[in-house]
Amino acid sequence: MPYPVFHTHRGVVSVRNGAIPDIVIRRLPIYVRTLRRLAAAGIDSVSSEELATHLGVTAAQIRRDLSFFGRFGKQGKGYDVRHLIEEITRILHLDRTWDVALVGFGRLGQAIAHYRGFEEDGFRIAAIFDHNPDHIGQVVNGVVVLPDYQIESVVRESGIKIGIIAVPADAAQQAADQLIAGGVRAILNYAPVILRLPPGIWMREIDPTSALQSLTYYLEPAPIPDSVLSPGSFTTSWPGSNGGRTPGSFRA
C-alpha cells in the first residue's frame, strides 16, 4: 500500500482538553510501575519530590506531566499512592484486558507468546499467526497458531486493536498491512525495519540491535577528523557531553 511514512513520535495526542505530548504518555507507565512498587512496600502517600527521587526526574516534570490530566495531589500532603495508580491506569485504559494479535512464531515470537507478564498488566495474546507450516497448529496457552493469510479476517472477527510484529524485516510491512486491514490501530514492532503506516495508527518500535549500536559509540574514544585538528584549532569535551573522552578534557 502507498502509505506515507508515519512516526508515533510526531508530537502530540489529541484529547478533549487539548494536546498532550507523546513523550508524556510514554512516561505514564513508568510512573504507575514505580507507584505500584511503593504501594507494595506499604507506602500510602508520596510527594512529587520523593517520587522524583525514585524515577530519576525532577519533581517539576512529574507535576507538569500529571497536570495534563487534572489535579491529583494536595498541597503539603503529596499524592495518595493507590488513588494515583487508579487514575493513571484509567488514563492509559488499563482498567480492562486488551486482546493482542501476535504475528510471527519463530524464536522471538515463541518467547513473546510464552511471556506471562503481559497478562499481569492487562494484555492477552488472543491470536497467533505464522507463515511456517511447521508452526501452524501448535497451541500456546490455549491459543492455536494460525496461518498468516487469516490475519485480517480473524483480527476483524475478534475485534483486536493491538498487534505485535515479530517477523523478519522483509515480512514486516505485509504483516502490518494485514493487521491494519483487520482493524488494528496500535502496533508493537520488533522487526528491524521502518514501517509505512497510515494516519491514525500508533506504533512503538523495539530494536535491541540498534540500541546496542548506539551504546558502543560511548565505549571507545571517538576519532577526530584531521580537518578539526588543523594548526591553531582545538576541541573540547564539555562536562556531561562525554564525547568519548574524559569530561572536561581538551586537545590542542
From TrEMBL:
InterPro entries: CoA-bd, NAD(P)-bd_dom_sf, Rex_actinobacterial-type, Rex_DNA-bd_C_dom, Tscrpt_rep_Rex, WH-like_DNA-bd_sf, WH_DNA-bd_sf
Domain annotation CoA-binding: ranges: 93-194
Residues in the DNA-binding region annotation: 30-69
Domain of life: Bacteria
Molecular function terms, GO-annotated: DNA binding; DNA-binding transcription factor activity
Binding locations of NAD(+): 104-109
Protein localization: Cytoplasm
Keyword terms: Cytoplasm, DNA-binding, NAD, Repressor, Transcription, Transcription regulation
Keyword Magnesium: no
Family the entry assigns: Belongs to the transcriptional regulatory Rex family.
Quaternary structure, from the entry: Homodimer.
Physiological role: Modulates transcription in response to changes in cellular NADH/NAD(+) redox state.
PANTHER family: REDOX-SENSING TRANSCRIPTIONAL REPRESSOR REX (PTHR35786), REDOX-SENSING TRANSCRIPTIONAL REPRESSOR REX 1 (PTHR35786:SF1)
Name used for this protein in its record: Redox-sensing transcriptional repressor Rex
Gene source species: Thermorudis peleae
